[in-house]
Amino acid sequence: MTVESTSGTLPAFAATLTEAASAFRGSTQVRPKAADVVSALLEAEKAAKQQKLTYPLGSLLGNWRLCFVTTAKVKEQSGIVRGRGWYLPKIFIKAHISFSQPVEMSGENPGAAAIGNQLEVGAFTLKLTGPALYLGKKNILAFDFYQMQLSLFNRAIYSGNFRKGQGQEKDFYQQSIGELAFFSFFIVAEDFIAARGRGGGLALWIRDN
After folding, report:
1. pLDDT tens sequence across 35-90
2. Is 165 within a domain?
3. Structure pTM?
4. Beta bridge partners of 121
5. Most buried residue among 39, 173, 196, 198 by CB atoms closer than 10 A?
6. Are 70 and 41 in contact (CB under 8 A)?
7. What sign does the dihedral 81-83-84-85 (CA atoms) show?
8. Shortest CA distance to 194 belongs to which of 207, 175, 181?
9. pLDDT-based confidence at 8, cuts 50/70/90?
10. CA nearest to 86, candidates 16, 157, 168, 20
11. d(Cα 62, Cα 138) in Å, to the nearest integer?
């Protein structure tokens, strides 16, 4: 995705988010202040709604590392930003999200996909996986988790059902979006993506190949 203003330059919010992503990745040494990133995320969300931007599912596929999050329901009110945000630690704690679309899924439903959510704390790793459904016209990706794996020093110590379990996975696509967790994406670039979750918080991820 290329975000340009009428003058052909990056709008301020896109420049700030690009700098934040680069700084977290280590390409630059100075990272924008957390308050500036929150404002940039809100501006990006507003621009996406005004311009009615849409993104294909293919642009989300891959592995992404979480680098910045905000409090729930952060918003701008009367020119004042309500809520705050912070960068995640670069070491010891790592959070990733991944999206894929196996051939058998795309054949049944163009928006059908799979999601993985992984948290690493030191030598301990928790990974949740399950089905997802992408509504391209709204940039909404609904999902649920049915499988869990726990690992210690890269060795699995548990692998099995999570909550409802795989027995209910076949019913996932029959549920309404209102019953599911979801992300509403408002900026999808080559190196980073950003979305608002169902709980109201904003998140920024960087591509992690």
Report:
1. 999 999 999 999 999 999 999 999 999 999 999 999 998 998 878 888 899 999 98
2. yes
3. 0.90
4. 93, 124
5. 196
6. yes
7. negative
8. 207
9. very low
10. 20
11. 20
Within-domain flag for 5:
no
Do 85 and 202 form a contact (C-beta atoms < 8 A)?
yes
In a domain, 33, yes or no: yes
Burial of 97 (0-12, 13-18, 19+ CB in 10 A): buried
* 2: in domain: no
Residue 29: phi and psi, rounded to 5, are -95, -25
What pLDDT digit, counting tens, does each position of 114-156 carry? Answer: 999 999 999 999 999 999 999 999 999 999 999 999 999 999 9
Residue 4's SS3 state is: coil
Write down the residue that tokens 């311009």 correspond to: 51
Q: What is the CATH number of the domain that holds 47?
A: 2.40.128
* DSSP for residue 59: G
Q: With 50 as the cut, is the pLDDT of residue 1 above it?
A: no
Q: How confident is the model at residue 34 (pLDDT cuts 50, 70, 90)?
A: very high
Q: How many domains does the chain have?
A: 1
